[in-house]
Amino acid sequence: MATEERSFKTQDFTVPSSGTGETIQVRISEPNLTSENLGLETWAASHILASQLHHIGPKIQFPAPSSDVLPILELGAGTGLVGVTAATLWKQPVVLTDLAPLVPALDANIDLNSEGLRTANTHMEAGTLDWKHPTTLIVKDQQQPQTQAHVIFAADTIYSEEHPELLANVILKWLVKDKEARFIIAYPLRVCYIDYIREMWERLEEGGMEAFEEGREEASQDLFNDERLVEWSVWRWKDI
């Protein structure tokens, strides 16, 4: 059920928490379609990726906490659905990143899910990471000490000709060199962007990574009007 207040709506997304039917609710606030900021919307790729986390998570081994390595980093987080789901299900700290104007909305969605985060005994933050200069992570106007992440998410982040190179460069720089480190991505199968997807795959493979798990899912027609067919894949370093 969605409730409208001012120019925003708040919606509860149902996400699987196990393979036996259990679910969790993730509350997300986003502008109404009449709002000026149409970019801040939860897309099908985010919901599909969030819905895969219950079976991907148990296969990932997280290292002991480190001052240099983030447990989980999300790129182009949008409304934060994937990151909030990961923090809640995997019980690991998550940093959401996107463009600076979107960070307040990410902070708001973190607050909306504070009860679930407390139950999971974990926390989240939101900040910025410039893909063109991906050496500095900024959270609450402060440069963060971490320069790598153990798990990186990206959902529906490839939709221009510059994105394959930029995203691949960020992944190759930020994903820690560890056999358990993972990059997990989902994207709608838009015909006009298939070449961009292929280029991203090629760049990651040339950088020493491999996709070892992948799948396709169709998002619910009740939740999403278009671009419902989504492909996802899980990547790791090939020779570690």
Automatic annotation (TrEMBL):
A Pfam family annotated for this UniProt entry: Methyltransf_16
SUPFAM superfamilies: S-adenosyl-L-methionine-dependent methyltransferases
Disordered: region residues: 1-21
Listed GO MF terms: S-adenosylmethionine-dependent methyltransferase activity
InterPro entries noted in UniProt: Methyltransf_16, SAM-dependent_MTases_sf
GO CC, any one term: cytosol
Ranges of Polar residues composition bias in the record: 10-21
Domain of life from the UniProt record: Eukaryota
Family annotation (PANTHER family): HEPATOCELLULAR CARCINOMA-ASSOCIATED ANTIGEN, PROTEIN-LYSINE N-METHYLTRANSFERASE EFM2
Official protein name in the record: Uncharacterized protein
Taxonomic path: Eukaryota, Fungi, Dikarya, Ascomycota, Pezizomycotina
